[in-house]
Automatic annotation (TrEMBL):
Highest taxon of source: Eukaryota
Protein name from the UniProt record: Gustatory receptor
Organism in which the protein naturally occurs: Tetranychus urticae
Claim: Transmembrane is one of the keywords in the record: yes
Membrane-spanning parts: 6-25, 46-64, 100-121, 133-149, 217-237, 249-271, 307-334
Length: 339
């Protein structure tokens, strides 16, 4: 992705523009008969997907560049936790696990698309007059999947990186608390001061990563909700064979799973930061030294660490609950739109 980012050369930028045009041919051909008369005849679903695609590819091109990666690396190495065995184990275990889950979901989604193309081809392209749209869709699929895998891997890796940093400070805060409980020692000022400084550094790291994750999450969510509504409508209200319905269910589950894992990973950063704050608050009960209490006050009064959803709201447990409530409401409401 860095090879076609905004900080790459002119040839790479031209290549990115060319591939972006090829990717959108499907939507342009699908809406070539658009009318601006009193009756708007464009396919609104294709327009939403078209805009989401443009937004995602533009965001990665403009924001995920050499400058961004260098800044994230600098903030990560400033933490000086990359050589910690448990930290490295946590990062690589989660990275491999989530990549395997993502590849599995993409295989299911690819199976759904292959079946769709096979059914489309056998229906008779020339007879239906949609041969151009079919080949544009094939071209898009060949280019789209490598980009999709790269985009998802980047979002997963950045989220896991932030979660790993929070895991490290959470581990140290709990170790400090257990040590005080077992040995009944007085809380050391340097220990809590170093913990607060690391928390501030992690806050800076998460804020930097949030520059790309926040807008991408919003676009991903809009794209997912549109696809989810369309698939539910097709499965419930369109007459089709059982095999077609099965493949649509597989594609819907794969799309939902990838979106859920991305949001779940970003949520973990917020949850772990809350655990750190709670542990530090418990530490305040182990001391009456004013200097230490002031340091703890500075710690717990800092802004929350977490990713946001397009800058609208922070991703918390209540956000996830609201999201699933909205999806449930949409499923219930779909039959009324089908009448």
């Amino acid at each position: 992705m860095l090879n076609v980012s905004s900080t790459s050369g002119i040839v790479q930028k031209c290549f990115f523009a060319f591939t972006l045009i090829l990717l959108q041919l499907k939507f342009l051909i699908g809406n070539r008969d658009i009318s601006l008369n009193s009756i708007f005849t464009a396919d609104s679903r294709l327009i939403v997907f078209f805009l989401c695609d443009i937004c995602i590819f533009s965001l990665f091109h403009l924001k995920y560049n050499h400058t961004f990666v260098k800044k994230v690396n600098d903030l990560w190495y400033d933490l000086r936790i990359e050589h910690d065995y448990e930290t490295r184990k946590y990062f690589w275990t989660h990275k491999v696990t989530y990549r395997l889950l993502q590849v599995t979901c993409l295989i299911f989604y690819l199976t759904f698309n292959i079946f769709h193309f096979y059914k489309w081809f056998n229906s008779g392209l020339e007879k239906l007059g949609n041969a151009d749209l079919f080949w544009a869709s094939i071209t898009r699929a060949l280019i789209f999947y490598p980009y999709l895998i790269s985009h998802n891997f980047i979002l997963f890796d950045l989220s896991i990186l932030a979660e790993t940093a929070m895991q490290n400070i959470e581990k140290h805060s709990k170790e400090l608390y257990k040590e005080l409980l077992s040995n009944e020692k007085v809380l050391n000022f340097e220990a809590i001061h170093n913990l607060r400084l690391k928390y501030v550094q992690i806050h800076q790291l998460v804020d930097k990563i949030n520059e790309i994750i926040s807008p991408c999450l919003l676009v991903y969510l809009i794209n997912f909700i549109c696809r989810f509504i369309h698939l539910v409508y097709l499965i419930l209200f369109v007459q089709q064979s059982g095999l077609s319905r099965l493949y649509q269910i597989i594609g819907g589950i794969a799309t939902f799973t990838i979106t859920y894992f991305i949001i779940h990973l970003t949520l973990q950063v917020y949850l772990k930061s809350q655990q750190v704050i709670l542990t530090v608050y418990k530490l305040s009960l182990k001391t009456d030294y004013l200097k230490v209490l002031n340091e703890i006050t500075l710690f717990v009064n800092r802004n929350e660490i977490g990713f946001s959803l397009g800058g609208i709201c922070m991703i918390t447990s209540s956000t996830m609950t609201t999201l699933f409530s909205v999806l449930g409401t949409l499923i219930i409401a779909i039959p009324s739109f089908a009448r």
